[in-house]
Design a protein that fits this description.
The chain has helices spanning about 5-15, 20-35, 40-55, 90, 105-115, 125-140, 170-190, 210-215, 220-225, 275-285, 290-300, 310-325, 330-374; strands spanning about 1-5, 65, 95, 190, 250-255, 265. By secondary structure, the protein is mostly helical.
Length: about 375
Protein backbone atom coordinates (compact mmCIF):
# COMPACT_ATOMS: atom_id res chain seq x y z
CA UNK A 1 0.00 0.00 0.00
CA UNK A 2 1.63 3.22 -1.24
CA UNK A 3 0.49 6.82 -1.15
CA UNK A 4 0.64 9.75 -3.53
CA UNK A 5 2.22 12.54 -1.48
CA UNK A 6 0.64 15.45 -3.35
CA UNK A 7 -2.86 14.03 -2.85
CA UNK A 8 -2.13 13.12 0.76
CA UNK A 9 -0.99 16.59 1.78
CA UNK A 10 -3.74 18.32 -0.23
CA UNK A 11 -6.38 16.25 1.57
CA UNK A 12 -4.66 16.75 4.94
CA UNK A 13 -4.81 20.52 4.60
CA UNK A 14 -8.47 20.41 3.60
CA UNK A 15 -9.43 18.36 6.65
CA UNK A 16 -6.93 19.52 9.29
CA UNK A 17 -5.51 22.85 8.12
CA UNK A 18 -1.98 24.08 7.47
CA UNK A 19 1.20 22.09 8.13
CA UNK A 20 4.61 23.18 9.38
CA UNK A 21 7.72 22.02 7.54
CA UNK A 22 8.58 19.83 10.55
CA UNK A 23 5.16 18.13 10.47
CA UNK A 24 5.53 17.47 6.73
CA UNK A 25 8.91 15.83 7.37
CA UNK A 26 7.44 13.71 10.17
CA UNK A 27 4.52 12.54 8.03
CA UNK A 28 6.86 11.78 5.12
CA UNK A 29 8.89 9.53 7.39
CA UNK A 30 5.84 7.76 8.85
CA UNK A 31 4.29 7.12 5.43
CA UNK A 32 7.63 5.79 4.22
CA UNK A 33 7.76 3.29 7.07
CA UNK A 34 4.18 2.14 6.56
CA UNK A 35 5.00 1.55 2.89
CA UNK A 36 8.34 -0.11 3.60
CA UNK A 37 6.83 -2.49 6.17
CA UNK A 38 3.93 -3.33 3.83
CA UNK A 39 0.97 -2.25 5.95
CA UNK A 40 -2.10 -3.18 3.91
CA UNK A 41 -5.02 -1.87 5.99
CA UNK A 42 -5.58 1.88 5.70
CA UNK A 43 -7.59 1.82 8.93
CA UNK A 44 -4.65 0.57 10.99
CA UNK A 45 -2.42 3.24 9.45
CA UNK A 46 -5.10 5.88 10.03
CA UNK A 47 -5.40 5.05 13.71
CA UNK A 48 -1.64 5.06 14.22
CA UNK A 49 -1.35 8.46 12.53
CA UNK A 50 -4.21 9.80 14.67
CA UNK A 51 -2.46 8.53 17.80
CA UNK A 52 0.85 10.08 16.78
CA UNK A 53 -0.86 13.40 16.03
CA UNK A 54 -2.16 13.60 19.60
CA UNK A 55 0.81 12.06 21.40
CA UNK A 56 3.36 14.35 19.68
CA UNK A 57 1.33 17.57 20.05
CA UNK A 58 0.57 17.58 16.29
CA UNK A 59 4.27 17.68 15.31
CA UNK A 60 4.47 14.07 14.05
CA UNK A 61 7.98 13.94 15.53
CA UNK A 62 9.22 11.93 18.53
CA UNK A 63 8.97 13.97 21.74
CA UNK A 64 10.09 13.78 25.36
CA UNK A 65 7.64 14.05 28.25
CA UNK A 66 7.89 17.56 29.65
CA UNK A 67 8.21 18.37 33.32
CA UNK A 68 10.61 19.31 36.08
CA UNK A 69 12.68 16.49 37.53
CA UNK A 70 10.64 16.60 40.75
CA UNK A 71 7.46 15.89 38.76
CA UNK A 72 8.70 12.39 37.96
CA UNK A 73 9.37 11.50 41.59
CA UNK A 74 5.88 10.00 41.76
CA UNK A 75 7.10 7.23 39.46
CA UNK A 76 10.04 6.33 41.72
CA UNK A 77 10.06 2.69 42.89
CA UNK A 78 6.73 1.98 41.18
CA UNK A 79 6.58 -1.80 40.77
CA UNK A 80 4.19 -1.78 37.81
CA UNK A 81 6.78 0.23 35.88
CA UNK A 82 9.69 -1.86 37.09
CA UNK A 83 11.43 1.19 38.56
CA UNK A 84 13.82 -0.09 41.20
CA UNK A 85 16.53 2.55 41.51
CA UNK A 86 16.52 6.16 42.61
CA UNK A 87 16.12 8.38 39.54
CA UNK A 88 14.32 5.76 37.43
CA UNK A 89 11.16 7.90 37.30
CA UNK A 90 12.96 10.71 35.50
CA UNK A 91 15.39 8.55 33.54
CA UNK A 92 12.64 6.43 32.04
CA UNK A 93 10.11 9.20 31.42
CA UNK A 94 8.00 9.09 28.26
CA UNK A 95 9.71 9.36 24.89
CA UNK A 96 8.90 8.65 21.23
CA UNK A 97 5.80 8.65 19.03
CA UNK A 98 3.77 6.90 21.74
CA UNK A 99 5.78 7.34 24.90
CA UNK A 100 7.04 4.34 26.81
CA UNK A 101 7.68 4.88 30.52
CA UNK A 102 9.41 2.88 33.20
CA UNK A 103 12.41 0.54 33.34
CA UNK A 104 10.24 -2.54 32.61
CA UNK A 105 8.94 -1.21 29.28
CA UNK A 106 12.40 -0.05 28.25
CA UNK A 107 13.77 -3.53 28.99
CA UNK A 108 10.95 -5.16 27.01
CA UNK A 109 11.64 -3.13 23.88
CA UNK A 110 15.39 -3.42 24.35
CA UNK A 111 15.00 -7.20 24.11
CA UNK A 112 12.62 -7.01 21.13
CA UNK A 113 14.63 -4.50 19.09
CA UNK A 114 18.12 -5.58 20.10
CA UNK A 115 19.13 -2.11 21.31
CA UNK A 116 20.12 -0.75 24.72
CA UNK A 117 17.26 1.39 26.00
CA UNK A 118 18.23 0.77 29.62
CA UNK A 119 21.51 2.67 29.55
CA UNK A 120 20.49 4.88 26.63
CA UNK A 121 16.73 5.54 26.96
CA UNK A 122 17.07 8.60 24.71
CA UNK A 123 17.42 6.20 21.75
CA UNK A 124 13.62 5.92 21.91
CA UNK A 125 13.61 9.35 20.27
CA UNK A 126 15.27 8.05 17.12
CA UNK A 127 12.56 7.98 14.42
CA UNK A 128 13.00 4.34 13.39
CA UNK A 129 13.16 3.13 16.98
CA UNK A 130 10.16 5.25 17.92
CA UNK A 131 8.21 3.79 15.00
CA UNK A 132 9.07 0.20 15.93
CA UNK A 133 7.95 0.80 19.51
CA UNK A 134 4.69 2.36 18.32
CA UNK A 135 3.91 -0.41 15.82
CA UNK A 136 4.90 -3.42 17.91
CA UNK A 137 3.40 -1.98 21.08
CA UNK A 138 -0.01 -1.33 19.51
CA UNK A 139 -0.19 -4.44 17.32
CA UNK A 140 0.91 -6.87 20.03
CA UNK A 141 -0.72 -5.14 22.98
CA UNK A 142 2.53 -4.50 24.81
CA UNK A 143 1.44 -1.09 26.13
CA UNK A 144 -1.76 -2.03 27.98
CA UNK A 145 -2.52 -5.65 27.10
CA UNK A 146 -5.02 -4.51 24.42
CA UNK A 147 -4.15 -5.13 20.75
CA UNK A 148 -5.11 -2.86 17.87
CA UNK A 149 -6.38 -5.80 15.72
CA UNK A 150 -8.95 -6.51 18.45
CA UNK A 151 -10.64 -3.19 17.61
CA UNK A 152 -9.91 -2.87 13.88
CA UNK A 153 -10.48 -6.03 11.85
CA UNK A 154 -12.71 -7.56 9.16
CA UNK A 155 -15.72 -7.46 11.47
CA UNK A 156 -15.54 -4.02 13.02
CA UNK A 157 -13.81 -0.66 13.07
CA UNK A 158 -13.87 0.65 16.64
CA UNK A 159 -11.67 3.73 16.56
CA UNK A 160 -12.94 4.96 19.92
CA UNK A 161 -12.30 1.68 21.70
CA UNK A 162 -8.88 1.36 20.09
CA UNK A 163 -7.59 4.05 22.42
CA UNK A 164 -7.37 1.33 25.08
CA UNK A 165 -4.30 0.02 23.27
CA UNK A 166 -2.36 3.07 24.47
CA UNK A 167 -4.02 5.02 27.26
CA UNK A 168 -7.47 3.92 28.39
CA UNK A 169 -10.13 6.37 27.22
CA UNK A 170 -8.07 9.56 27.37
CA UNK A 171 -8.93 11.73 24.31
CA UNK A 172 -10.59 8.65 22.76
CA UNK A 173 -13.27 10.59 20.88
CA UNK A 174 -10.85 13.18 19.51
CA UNK A 175 -8.46 10.50 18.27
CA UNK A 176 -11.36 8.55 16.74
CA UNK A 177 -12.37 11.67 14.80
CA UNK A 178 -8.80 12.12 13.59
CA UNK A 179 -8.63 8.46 12.55
CA UNK A 180 -11.78 8.79 10.42
CA UNK A 181 -10.27 11.80 8.66
CA UNK A 182 -6.96 10.03 8.12
CA UNK A 183 -8.79 7.03 6.68
CA UNK A 184 -10.41 9.31 4.08
CA UNK A 185 -7.07 10.96 3.33
CA UNK A 186 -5.25 7.65 2.91
CA UNK A 187 -7.89 6.04 0.71
CA UNK A 188 -8.06 9.11 -1.54
CA UNK A 189 -4.28 9.19 -1.97
CA UNK A 190 -3.62 5.52 -2.72
CA UNK A 191 -0.99 5.14 -5.43
CA UNK A 192 -0.08 2.25 -7.70
CA UNK A 193 3.12 3.91 -8.89
CA UNK A 194 5.51 3.29 -6.00
CA UNK A 195 8.86 5.02 -6.32
CA UNK A 196 7.56 7.78 -8.60
CA UNK A 197 7.99 11.50 -7.98
CA UNK A 198 4.80 11.73 -5.98
CA UNK A 199 5.27 8.50 -4.04
CA UNK A 200 8.78 8.53 -2.65
CA UNK A 201 10.61 5.55 -1.26
CA UNK A 202 12.64 6.01 1.89
CA UNK A 203 15.78 4.27 3.03
CA UNK A 204 14.97 2.76 6.41
CA UNK A 205 16.62 0.11 8.56
CA UNK A 206 15.71 -3.57 8.84
CA UNK A 207 12.05 -4.20 7.91
CA UNK A 208 9.80 -4.44 10.94
CA UNK A 209 8.73 -8.00 10.21
CA UNK A 210 12.35 -9.13 10.68
CA UNK A 211 12.67 -7.08 13.85
CA UNK A 212 9.58 -8.67 15.38
CA UNK A 213 10.85 -12.14 14.49
CA UNK A 214 13.95 -11.47 16.59
CA UNK A 215 11.76 -11.81 19.66
CA UNK A 216 11.91 -15.58 19.16
CA UNK A 217 8.17 -16.25 18.97
CA UNK A 218 8.32 -16.96 15.23
CA UNK A 219 5.81 -14.22 14.45
CA UNK A 220 6.53 -11.43 12.00
CA UNK A 221 4.75 -8.16 11.29
CA UNK A 222 2.75 -9.84 8.54
CA UNK A 223 1.31 -12.20 11.16
CA UNK A 224 0.32 -9.30 13.39
CA UNK A 225 -1.32 -7.45 10.50
CA UNK A 226 -3.17 -10.58 9.38
CA UNK A 227 -4.78 -10.73 12.81
CA UNK A 228 -6.88 -7.77 11.69
CA UNK A 229 -8.57 -10.23 9.36
CA UNK A 230 -9.10 -12.70 12.19
CA UNK A 231 -11.12 -11.08 15.01
CA UNK A 232 -11.19 -14.37 16.93
CA UNK A 233 -7.43 -14.36 17.46
CA UNK A 234 -6.82 -14.32 21.22
CA UNK A 235 -4.79 -11.39 22.59
CA UNK A 236 -1.38 -12.20 23.98
CA UNK A 237 -1.15 -12.03 27.75
CA UNK A 238 0.40 -9.01 29.40
CA UNK A 239 0.92 -7.98 33.00
CA UNK A 240 1.27 -4.32 32.06
CA UNK A 241 -1.42 -1.82 32.98
CA UNK A 242 -2.75 1.31 31.34
CA UNK A 243 -1.03 3.63 33.77
CA UNK A 244 2.31 2.46 32.44
CA UNK A 245 1.82 4.72 29.43
CA UNK A 246 1.61 8.43 30.11
CA UNK A 247 -0.36 10.51 27.61
CA UNK A 248 1.62 13.51 26.41
CA UNK A 249 -0.39 16.39 24.95
CA UNK A 250 2.66 18.60 24.75
CA UNK A 251 6.37 18.13 25.01
CA UNK A 252 9.84 18.89 23.83
CA UNK A 253 10.12 18.28 20.11
CA UNK A 254 13.05 16.38 18.68
CA UNK A 255 13.70 17.02 15.02
CA UNK A 256 15.84 14.35 13.34
CA UNK A 257 18.60 15.47 10.98
CA UNK A 258 17.68 13.62 7.78
CA UNK A 259 16.25 10.96 10.06
CA UNK A 260 19.58 9.63 11.23
CA UNK A 261 20.34 8.29 14.68
CA UNK A 262 21.24 11.78 15.87
CA UNK A 263 18.43 13.96 17.11
CA UNK A 264 18.24 17.44 18.54
CA UNK A 265 15.70 19.20 20.71
CA UNK A 266 14.03 22.19 19.12
CA UNK A 267 11.62 24.78 20.41
CA UNK A 268 8.30 25.51 18.77
CA UNK A 269 8.64 27.48 15.50
CA UNK A 270 8.84 31.19 16.31
CA UNK A 271 8.12 34.27 14.22
CA UNK A 272 11.24 35.61 12.52
CA UNK A 273 12.20 38.37 10.09
CA UNK A 274 9.33 40.46 8.78
CA UNK A 275 6.87 38.22 10.63
CA UNK A 276 8.47 39.12 13.94
CA UNK A 277 8.50 42.85 13.07
CA UNK A 278 4.86 42.76 12.03
CA UNK A 279 4.13 40.92 15.26
CA UNK A 280 5.62 43.80 17.25
CA UNK A 281 3.66 46.37 15.29
CA UNK A 282 0.37 44.50 15.58
CA UNK A 283 0.93 44.07 19.31
CA UNK A 284 0.06 47.74 19.69
CA UNK A 285 -3.36 46.99 18.21
CA UNK A 286 -3.89 44.00 20.47
CA UNK A 287 -3.15 41.45 17.75
CA UNK A 288 0.05 40.09 19.27
CA UNK A 289 2.91 38.02 17.87
CA UNK A 290 0.94 34.73 17.76
CA UNK A 291 -1.30 36.26 15.09
CA UNK A 292 1.49 36.94 12.64
CA UNK A 293 3.32 33.77 13.67
CA UNK A 294 0.23 31.79 12.69
CA UNK A 295 0.11 33.39 9.27
CA UNK A 296 3.88 32.97 8.93
CA UNK A 297 3.57 29.27 9.75
CA UNK A 298 0.99 28.84 6.99
CA UNK A 299 3.23 30.63 4.49
CA UNK A 300 6.23 28.54 5.63
CA UNK A 301 4.29 25.33 4.98
CA UNK A 302 3.21 26.53 1.53
CA UNK A 303 6.11 24.85 -0.26
CA UNK A 304 7.19 22.48 2.50
CA UNK A 305 6.37 19.32 0.59
CA UNK A 306 7.98 20.48 -2.65
CA UNK A 307 4.79 21.48 -4.45
CA UNK A 308 2.30 24.34 -4.47
CA UNK A 309 -1.31 23.39 -4.95
CA UNK A 310 -4.68 25.18 -4.65
CA UNK A 311 -4.98 23.62 -1.20
CA UNK A 312 -1.70 25.28 -0.15
CA UNK A 313 -2.89 28.70 -1.30
CA UNK A 314 -6.26 28.16 0.33
CA UNK A 315 -4.48 27.27 3.58
CA UNK A 316 -2.61 30.60 3.59
CA UNK A 317 -5.72 32.59 2.71
CA UNK A 318 -7.78 30.84 5.39
CA UNK A 319 -5.03 31.54 7.93
CA UNK A 320 -5.16 35.25 7.07
CA UNK A 321 -8.92 35.25 7.52
CA UNK A 322 -8.60 33.28 10.74
CA UNK A 323 -6.05 35.57 12.34
CA UNK A 324 -6.90 38.98 10.86
CA UNK A 325 -10.68 39.20 10.50
CA UNK A 326 -11.45 38.76 14.23
CA UNK A 327 -9.47 41.97 14.76
CA UNK A 328 -10.86 43.91 11.80
CA UNK A 329 -12.69 46.20 14.22
CA UNK A 330 -9.31 47.44 15.45
CA UNK A 331 -8.37 48.33 11.90
CA UNK A 332 -11.72 50.02 11.21
CA UNK A 333 -11.64 52.05 14.40
CA UNK A 334 -8.01 52.88 13.73
CA UNK A 335 -8.85 54.27 10.30
CA UNK A 336 -11.83 56.22 11.66
CA UNK A 337 -9.72 57.59 14.49
CA UNK A 338 -6.99 58.59 12.04
CA UNK A 339 -9.58 60.42 9.88
CA UNK A 340 -11.00 62.29 12.86
CA UNK A 341 -7.58 63.33 14.13
CA UNK A 342 -6.47 64.37 10.63
CA UNK A 343 -9.62 66.49 10.17
CA UNK A 344 -9.18 68.10 13.59
CA UNK A 345 -5.55 68.94 12.86
CA UNK A 346 -6.52 70.51 9.51
CA UNK A 347 -9.15 72.66 11.22
CA UNK A 348 -6.77 73.74 13.99
CA UNK A 349 -4.11 74.53 11.41
CA UNK A 350 -6.59 76.60 9.38
CA UNK A 351 -7.79 78.53 12.42
CA UNK A 352 -4.19 79.17 13.50
CA UNK A 353 -3.32 80.52 10.06
CA UNK A 354 -6.41 82.78 10.13
CA UNK A 355 -5.42 84.06 13.55
CA UNK A 356 -1.84 84.74 12.50
CA UNK A 357 -2.97 86.47 9.29
CA UNK A 358 -5.43 88.61 11.23
CA UNK A 359 -2.75 89.56 13.74
CA UNK A 360 -0.38 90.52 10.94
CA UNK A 361 -3.04 92.63 9.22
CA UNK A 362 -3.87 94.39 12.49
CA UNK A 363 -0.18 95.13 13.05
CA UNK A 364 0.19 96.57 9.54
CA UNK A 365 -2.88 98.79 10.03
CA UNK A 366 -1.53 100.13 13.34
CA UNK A 367 1.77 101.04 11.69
CA UNK A 368 -0.03 102.76 8.79
CA UNK A 369 -2.18 104.83 11.19
CA UNK A 370 0.86 105.99 13.15
CA UNK A 371 2.66 107.05 9.97
CA UNK A 372 -0.44 108.89 8.73
CA UNK A 373 -0.66 110.76 12.02
CA UNK A 374 2.86 112.01 11.59
Amino acid sequence: MNFNRRKFFDQYRRLFGSLTAEAVAGLEFLLGRFEKDNWTDARLIAYCLATVKIETAHTFLPITERGERAYFNKYEWRKTLGNKETGDGYKYRGRGFSQITGRKNHQTFSDLLGIDLINKPEKALEPNVAFDILAIGMLRGLFTGKRLPDYINSVKTDYKGARKTVNGTDKAEQIADYAEKFEKILKSSLSTNFGSENSREFNTHTPLNEVVEKSGDGRGLSDELKDAENPAAPPESSTQTADQITNISSGEKTVPDNFTSETKVMDAPAATGITAKLGKWTAYLGLGVPTMAGIGSAVKGLYADGTISPADIFSVISSVFKYVLPYSSYIVFGLIGYKIVKTALVQVSFMLRMYLNASADKHDIQIAVKEEAK
